[in-house]
Amino acid sequence: MASRRSTRRRKGRASGHRPLRAAVTLLTVTAVGAGAVVVALNRLDDSTPVAERCAATAGERSWYLSVAQADNAALVTGTSLRRGLPARAATIGIATALQESRLVNIDYGDRDSVGLFQQRPSQGWGSVEQIMDPVYSTNAFYDVLETVDGYEDMEITVAAQTVQRSAFPDAYAQHEPRSRAWASSLTGYSPATLTCELAAVSADEIAATHADPTAPLLARVARDLGDLPAVSAGDTAPGVVTVETTSLPAAAGDGGAERAAWAVAQWAVASADATHLVAVDVADRRWTRAEPTWEVVDRAADATPAPSPGTVRLTVATPPS
Questions:
Q1: Within-domain flag for 7
Q2: Higher confidence at residue 52 or residue 211?
Q3: Which of 131, 124, 62, 54 is nearest to 100 (CA)?
Q4: What is the CA radius of gyration of the chain?
Q5: Pick from 187, 183, 175, 103: which is nearest to 138 by CA?
Q6: Is a pLDDT exceeding 50 seen at residue 45?
Q7: Shortest CA distance to 197 belongs to which of 289, 270, 265, 76?
Q8: What's the 3-state SS for 154-195?
Q9: C-alpha 52: how far from chain center
């Protein structure tokens, strides 16, 4: 299985559509060497100004990730939701990817390790091309995790190590608090706790979506969450997509439709940079790029009604009229 990386590194390519942001992350990691994971991640917890970042809050503590890391956390957790796995699986998945790759889809590693989970083609995880597809690698990780008897009750580091067979079996434990906070938000157990501070969507980004600005969002819903009913309002309300969440397995468990709706709402915020999302409405709350907190909406004074239970209304940037 995937072995832990040595300090040897070669130049690689991080995923994400904004190269400068990815380059800053990698330069920070290169500068601090072997302690890169802890230092680079913890640096986001101090008062250093960060132009764009995301946070999951647990109690009095906010756990920050870069926009690229948050996007991958959304995939890792969305995949667990689609597969009907417990929130514990998402925590294990995020902690593993933080340790293995800093939660960035890198094309290098120890020996032939690549991708989010540093899986090795020589150990049967698939081809390099397959493993570099984060959807494939995330599902491959969960395929093995689901064969681990009793993983739900294991310590996070033990469950991760059982899958990864790392040379540093205790290393995953350092990421447990951060991973728990993010998994709890992204699985809907902790409503209104995940936010992202993002720059405005540029005209070039909107133009890149061609005729339909909702296309990246609709594609991402299908990729991460599966065949959820997601309907674009079209000319009636340009840029607005309504997602029905009750077909997620999470809707049948603890928290029901409310939890499923919050899971999708906070997944949408975590992946907002890639989808050009500008607003999320769920229950009586709204997140926007302009006011990146979960504000209570006075629906009597607001122009739009509250989404029905179990649904989330997502709004993406559209060209100026």
A1: no
A2: 52
A3: 131
A4: 19
A5: 103
A6: no
A7: 289
A8: CCHHHHHHHHHCCCCCCHHHHHHHHHHHHHHHHCCCCCCCEE
A9: 15
Consecutive H or E run containing 315: strand 311-316
DSSP structure class, residue 35: G
Hey, what are 243's tokens? 């997602």
- Which of 130, 131, 136 has the alpha carbon at shortest distance from 114? 131
Do residues 210 and 123 share a domain?
no
259, burial (CB in 10 Å: exposed 0-12, middle 13-18, buried 19+): buried
Number of domains within the chain: 2
Q: Return the structure tokens found at 6.
A: 């040595």
Query: Based on the domain organization, do 162 and 56 belong to the same domain?
Result: yes
Gap between the Cα atoms of 150 and 81, Å rounded: 19
% of residues, the chain, pLDDT over 90? 74
**Helix/strand/coil percentages in the chain, nearest 5:** 45, 15, 40
Per-residue pLDDT tens over the stretch 57-100: 999 999 999 999 999 999 999 999 999 999 999 999 999 999 99
Beta carbons within 8 Å of 223's beta carbon, 6+ residues apart: 75, 135
137 closest CA partner among 173, 161, 155, 163: 163
Q: Domain span at residue 136? A: 19-186
- Predicted pLDDT of residue 158: 95
Tokens of 315: 């709004």
Angle at 21 between CA 201 and CA 282, to 5 degrees: 45
CA–CA separation, 197 and 51 (whole Å): 8
Tell me the pTM: 0.85
For residues 54 and 179, membership in a common domain is answered with: yes
